[in-house]
Specification:
By secondary structure, this protein is an alpha/beta fold. The chain has 10 helices and 21 strands. The strands form 2 sheets. Strands 3, 4, 6, 7, 9, 11, 13, 15, 17, 19 and 20 form an 11-stranded mixed sheet that branches. A 10-stranded mixed sheet has the order 2-1-5-8-10-12-14-16-18-21, covered by helices on one side. A hairpin with a 2-residue loop joins strand 1 and strand 2.
Amino acid sequence: MELKEKILSSFLAFEGQVDVNSSLHELRVDAMKCFETKGFPTKKEEAWKYTSLNSVLKNDFSVFPKHENAIEFSDVKKYFLHEIDTYKVVFIDGVFSSFLSATTHDGLDVCLMSSALTKPKYKMVIDAYYHQIANKAESLTALNTAFATEGAFIHIPKSKVVDKPIEIMYFTTGVESALLVQPRNLIVVGENSHVQIIERHQCIEGNPVLTNSVTEVFAQKRAIVDYYKIQNDVLTANLVDNTYISQKQESHVSVHTFSFGGNLTRNNLNFYHFGERIDSTLKGITIIGHKQHVDHFTLVNHATPNCESHQNYKTIIADSATGVFNGKIYVEKEAQKTDAFQQNNNILIGDKATINAKPQLEIFADDVKCSHGCTIGQLDETALFYMQQRGIPQKEAKALLMYAFSNDVIESIKIPELKQRITKIIATKLGVSLGFDL
């Protein structure tokens, strides 16, 4: 049975388990109809021109876990930012782990989506925000909506500076021969509030996994949101991450994406502006090899005047790996005085590495400052020779050049412990010890 057919038949069983009187029932049914009509995206679609899911979909994924499994903290400690105290929302094979989590309702809500969807006290928030900014016509978002029951629910009230970062962690244990998981996150940050969030999807074993994740982020007036996505999974892991961000007046939202591991990774990052003097930042570092595939698809929709957006993606590709950057800045007619910048720089190491880059500007306003740029090249042989002449071995010299290439993105990380962690991961990917801490 093909995966699409298995999903359609599984939905009937799923509907029998959930409350048919739920206000979400109609939403789920409509979403399932959308997925049934469109199916999985293919390379015939312009947005997926350079990324094919065919090899991934050949796996016989289980739509629901057949087994329950627990893991010890010692087995996964290295994946947490354990150097500092954090709030934690942890899931194992899609099921919440109270043992590994550290949630709270003390002045803010860091808890479960399943609670928010079912408890009356969260109804006003769910009605106001759930599935409001997500693209209802996008097939994988629709698939997630049809089955969404669990994930992280974060609600930060007005004028609240969250005292420590929040970690959202999804672990898969490999108990299933192949597993499809579909987490759904909703994050609402109130007026004048500030929060830092770290998200990670991690396989403990090497069985195939397909994660179809959807996250909605709402930043109210003057809110500040720093979001970090760490993608350094095993080579049998596949991730499609759809993130939708709504920003109100004078809010600042930054999303850093660090893509180092996994078989196929697709990051769909969408920003929408609903007020003036908004600032949006999208930055990423990708370092891949073997036959890995990482695709960044970004959209910043400037719909209001006097707003800014900054995109900066750095990619290092080795072996037979493939990178994709498809970034769009869309400036509507009313969005005068927009300042939008987009940069994508790529280094290819070897003759078989591939990059497909498609920066785009669509501007309908006449008083704007918009620019985009893309470079594709190799390491600077002159700089490499210069460093070797001063006693630095070739391997270390190459690593230092590649680190320097990505350093402006690393420098913008606002959590010192996370900056050190990313630096160490990069050093491991480059196969050297950089010999310094940041």
